[in-house]
Amino acid sequence: MSSDTPSCSTSSAPDVSDVLDAFFSLHDGLPRQAPGSDATTGTLLSLVGGLPADPRVLDIGCGSGRASLVLAEALTANVTAVDTHEPILDELRRAAERSGLSSRVNAAALSMTELPFDAGSFDLIWAEGSAYIMGFDAALREWRRLLAPGGTLVITECEWSHSHPSTEAREFWAEAYPLRTTAENVGAADAAGYTVAATYRLPDRDWFDEYYTPLDQRIAQLTTVTDSMAKAVAVTRREIDMRCEHGTDYSYTGYVLTPRPDHEDGEETTMSDTTTRISWATRPETPGDIEAIRAVNLAAFDTAGEADLIEALRQDPAWLPGLSWVAQAPDGRVAGYALLTRSWVGGENALTLGPVAVLPEYQKLGAGGAVIRALIDEARTRGERLIVVLGHAEYYPRFGFTRASGHGISVTFDVPDETLMALPLDESVPVPSGTIRYPAPFGV
C-alpha cells in the first residue's frame, strides 16, 4: 500500500456534499465499489434455490454493475440495476453494451430507500455491499415486500468475524457502521420474517483484488487535490489500513434469504405463550458442562451413540481443546451443542463437524445454528482450512457447506452424495482433496 498523501490546494474546511462528490470521483471507473468478485457472485447464485425460467431480478445499489452483468448472463434474465450516481450507471450501460447484454440490463437512477416498484415485482433481489447505506434491518424490512412468492433476497453484510475483535477495530467501526456477529444478523433475518437458506463468508481477496488495490492505485496517482478530496482520501486510507492491520476481526458475509409465507410484519411467533425470539449465548465448553452436554445428546437422539462418541473423542488425539461449544438458553441451561475434531482429507488437516445436538424443547429455535456458526468462526480464526460434515442436505448449506464431491472429497463407505458436504474456510488457499480419514472413535 502507498503511504503518500495528496497535497491540498486550498485551506478552507470542505463541505460535506463536496466530500461525497470526492468519494464518488475516487470510485468512478473502478471495477467495484465494495468487496466482492464475479466468483463470489457466482457462488452466492449457486446457493439460491429454484427460480422461474425467466426470473425478474433487481440489483440494489449496483454500482458499476459487475453483479448485474453476471446475473444477466448466468440467468439469461432481465436485470433492473439501481443506484443514485448517474456516472457510474453510465459505466454499467457501456459495460453491458460491450458484453452484448444491453437488452437485458436496465440501469436506473433510484434511491434504495424509495423504490417505486409494486409489491411482488421480483423473483430475486440482489444487494452486494450496499445494504449498509440504509442499514441491514431496514433493508430486510423494506425490500421484503418487493419479493414475489417463493422469491429470494441475496444480501452481503459486513460483520464481526469472531467474538473478540481488537480495540482498534471496535473503535473504527463504532464510528463507521455498527457491526454485529453472524448469529445476531441471522437473528435479525429471522425476526424480519426470513428463513436463512445459506450463508457464505467472502474470501479475503474479495477486499483487495478488485476493490482496495485499484482504489489505492487511484489514490497514488493523485497529485494536487482539493480539501474535499484530501478528506475523502484520508478516510479511505484509514479504512484500507484498518483492513490490512485488523482484517481478521471482520468480514463480509453473504446471506441467501427466503421470506416465510406465514410471517407478517410485526408478527411475533409464540410457543406455549412464551416468545421464541431467543438470543443464544455461545461459548466453548467448560469442565462443568460435560454432564449437561451428555444430557443434551441423550435427549436429542434415540440412542446413546452420539453421547458415547463424544466421550470417546475426548480421550482421542483428534480432540482439539476449545472446539467443543455450547449454546446457552436464557436461563443458563446448555440447550445446544456442536463439536469439531481433527480429521484428514488426502493426508492434510481438516475438521469434522459432529455431533450436533439441541434439547427437544429448543429445536427449530436457532440454538443449533447459533452454536454451529460460532464454532465455524472459531475454526476460521485459528487458521483451519476445511470442515467436512455428513448430515442433512437441506440444513447445512445455510452455513456455506456444499457437496464435498465438488471439491474432489469422498469417503470409503456408501453415502448419498448430497449428504457429504465441505466448507472451505480460507478461499485463498487450495482446498484439500481426496478421501476423508475420520478419528478412530467414529469407527469408519
Account of the 3D structure:
It contains twelve helices and 20 strands. With 444 residues, it is α/β, with parallel strands linked by helices. Strands 12, 13, 14, 15, 16, 17, 18, 19 and 20 form a nine-stranded mixed sheet that branches. It has a seven-stranded mixed sheet with strand order 4-3-2-5-6-9-7, with helices on both faces. A two-stranded parallel ribbon has the order 1-8. The N and C termini lie far apart (49 Å). The model is unreliable at 1-13 and 265-277 (pLDDT under 50).
Give a quick account of the main beta sheet: strands, pairing sense, barrel closure: 9 strands, mixed
The rough form would be described as: globular
Total helical segments: 12
> Share of helix among residues?
25-40%
Low-pLDDT residue intervals, each spanning 5 or more residues: 1-13, 265-277
Q: In percent, how much strand structure appears in the residues?
A: 25-35%
Structural classification: alpha/beta
Average of per-residue pLDDT values: 88
Oligomer category: single chain
Number of strands: 20
Rounded to an integer in angstroms, the radius of gyration calculated over CA atoms is 23 Å
